[in-house]
Amino acid sequence: MAGLLDPLAVAAEAAAQLCAAAGVERIDVGVVLGSGWKPAADELAAAGEVLVRLACDRLPGFVRPTALGHGSEVVVLRVPAVGDGASRVVALLTGRTHAYEGVELWRTVHGVRTLAAAGARAVVLTNAAGGLAEGMRVGQPVVICDHINFTARTPLVGADFVNMVDAYSPRLRALVHKLEPGLDEAVYAMMPGPQYETPAEIGMLRVLGVGLVGMSTVYETIALRAADVEVLGLSLVTNLAAGVTGEPLDHDEVLEAGARAARECGALLAKVVRNL
To answer: Among residues 129, 140, 54, 62, which one has the least CA distance to residue 91?
Structure first.
């Protein structure tokens, strides 16, 4: 199907319909919520005025996420900014589509391409991640400083050579650390999923300097950098990765950790968005 359409054109049409539904000319900032982050949407919505809520599949190219813990709405907010007295138009995707759901790869980045086509110059990507680094705890937000793509796939097609140095904006990372001193940074590794990693795989990742592991975010970062959009990545440590504690992993554990940390993470998101 991807060969019969232009994914960028579909994103442009979705962006036009989203802006029209919200009654705005453009989106300033985008936010994508990962597993367990959905309750944080209420905290973020409380920081501003909701302009529109749409089921994502009302927009061209979108499909409803099937992974538990992911929402299926696009929420557009007007959020007051700090300092300049202005406001920011923020588009919030309450869930994402993963490659392991069996969709074409372009659909996994369609949401962020729509945000970019709508005018967003900065996008905050959140996810649930297994924590590998020594001292990490469940419920801890961590700033992503870089990534390793272990899927051997990319959403880019053709001779589209994209610079991935500083893929996770140093400017935005510095802003987060100013707002929330003491947050850790770590390298994020994307694995194909949906199976969790084996203890041997986690041992390999730790040797390579990885501190976070999950099944998303990397494709979106690649697509956003191809569109020259700044990226801020935030992981919520929802479990300690296989082999760290010796305990088996369970997706319910991921969702429960997200629910417990929702208020704190939502407040952090609101603070970041208001200061962008």
So the answer is: 54
What pTM was computed for the model? 0.92
The residues that bridge with 76 in the sheet, in sequence order, are: 52, 91
Q: Which has the minimum average pLDDT: 20-24, 29-33, 98-102, 266-270?
A: 266-270
Residue from 276, 169, 171, 155 nearest 226 by CA: 155
Residues 6+ apart with CB under 8 A from 99: 105, 108, 151, 153, 192, 193, 219
Residue 97 marked in a binding site: yes
Residue type at 72 in one-letter notation: S
As given in the structure block, the two tokens for residue 102 are: 């069996």
* C-beta separation of 12 from 110 below 8 A: no
Confidence tier at 233 by pLDDT (50, 70, 90): very high
d(CA 127, CA 125): 7
Residue 151 annotated as part of some ligand binding site? no
Q: Which CATH number covers residue 160?
A: 3.40.50.1580
Q: What is the residue type of 146?
A: D
Q: Is 128 annotated as a binding residue?
A: yes
66-91: per-residue pLDDT in tens? 776 677 899 999 998 887 668 899 99
Give yes or no for a contact between 228 and 4, defined as CB atoms under 8 angstroms apart: no
Q: What is the pLDDT of residues 155-166, one digit of tens each?
A: 999 888 999 999
From residue 48, how far is each of 91, 156, 264 by CA, in Å?
A: 12, 35, 17
251 in a labelled binding site:
no
Task: Give me the number of domains the chain comprises.
Answer: 1
pLDDT > 90 in the chain, percent: 65
For residue 137, say whether it is annotated as part of any ligand binding site: no
